[in-house]
Automatic annotation (TrEMBL):
Keywords: Isomerase, Metal-binding, Zinc. Gene3D superfamilies: Jelly Rolls, pectin degrading enzyme 5-keto 4- deoxyuronate isomerase, domain 1. Catalyzes the isomerization of 5-dehydro-4-deoxy-D-glucuronate to 3-deoxy-D-glycero-2,5-hexodiulosonate. Zn(2+) binds at residues 200, 202, 207, 249. It comes from Rhizobium oryzicola. The gene is kduI. Pathway: Glycan metabolism; pectin degradation; 2-dehydro-3-deoxy-D-gluconate from pectin: step 4/5. Pfam families: KduI. The lineage of its organism: Bacteria, Pseudomonadati, Pseudomonadota, Alphaproteobacteria, Hyphomicrobiales. GO terms for molecular function: 4-deoxy-L-threo-5-hexosulose-uronate ketol-isomerase activity. This is 4-deoxy-L-threo-5-hexosulose-uronate ketol-isomerase.
Length: 282
């Protein structure tokens, strides 16, 4: 197996507003998370969130000493918690001897103190794609599967404003206890392309997105930056975006798509948002 790691340092908004498009991508995008037989990770300095993609083929992938060393611990979850959602074929996660069957769009939470983590695909010809987020933790909570039916479904938006969508809260205080990680999945209805509008900020939390189910000849224009000085990123399927606390995070696609959002920071209040009037965006 191969483990590849990169680091993303925190950026002040005055720096981002002077960046070229290529520099924005270098600092705020993770362009390659999934490759067969690889565990690809990005360690961010935004609330110390670790973002990773594991795509096991015929052989299992294990969380090894590379990630433990990265976070300065004996093992990755010594002082961390972890959440994941599978966006590929059926898979398994073996954590400290317990096997969790993780199907398409199923999630899994692993509590602080989990030592050994291994990822498997049920069928190497249709490999699992585990999208993983890990953040610092201060207490241990029980590990558990979160299926799509376990998640809280929210019907949002309107066809008239091209943003009709279903938002599923997977890792959320109303579903299970965690230290700080929030995680969920949003799927746009056919004919809708806008996500997360009206735009908002939450200076108390960072956020990360991974967009997926984008056709090969399509993309999402992800808007970021301060409301009065927005920039954009062109995002393809299975690419991730980092959103600092000072940045809006919304976008529009050339087709409908899905994305997974995750947050870490001072609170777990999903509704703690500072909305930005549409007329104030520049």
């Amino acid at each position: 197996m191969t483990t590849k790691i990169e680091t993303r340092h925190a950026v002040h908004y005055t720096q981002s507003e002077a960046m070229t498009g290529a520099e924005l991508r270098e600092n705020f995008m993770i362009e390659r998370l999934f490759a067969t037989g690889e565990l690809n990770a990005a360690y961010t300095h935004y609330d110390r969130m670790l973002i990773a993609g594991a795509m096991p083929g015929a052989a299992a992938l294990s969380v090894g000493e590379e990630l433990a060393k990265l976070v300065g611990a004996e093992f990755l979850l010594e002082r961390r918690e972890l959440g994941l959602i599978n966006i590929g074929g059926p898979g398994r996660v073996i954590a400290d001897g317990t096997t969790y069957e993780v199907g398409f769009q199923d999630g899994l939470y692993l509590g602080m103190g989990t030592r050994e983590i291994r990822f498997e695909s049920v069928d190497a010809a249709a490999p699992a794609k585990f999208y993983i987020n890990s953040v610092p933790a201060h207490a241990t909570f029980p590990s558990r599967i979160i299926t799509k039916t376990d998640a809280i479904e929210n019907n949002l938006g309107d066809q008239l404003t091209c943003n009709k969508r279903k938002l599923y809260q997977y890792i959320h205080p109303k579903v299970l206890p965690t230290c700080q990680l929030l995680m969920g999945l949003t799927r746009l209805e056919p004919g809708s392309v806008w996500n997360t509008m009206p735009a908002h900020l939450h200076d108390r939390r960072m956020e990360a997105y991974i967009y997926f189910e984008i056709p090969e000849d399509a993309f999402v224009v992800h808007l970021m930056g301060r409301p009065q000085a927005t920039g954009h990123l062109i995002v393809r399927s299975e690419q991730a975006v980092l959103s600092p606390p000072w940045s809006i995070h919304c976008g529009s696609g050339t087709s409908s798509y899905a994305f997974i959002w995750s947050m870490a920071g001072d609170n777990q209040s999903f509704t703690d948002m500072d909305f930005v009037p549409m007329k104030d965006l520049k």
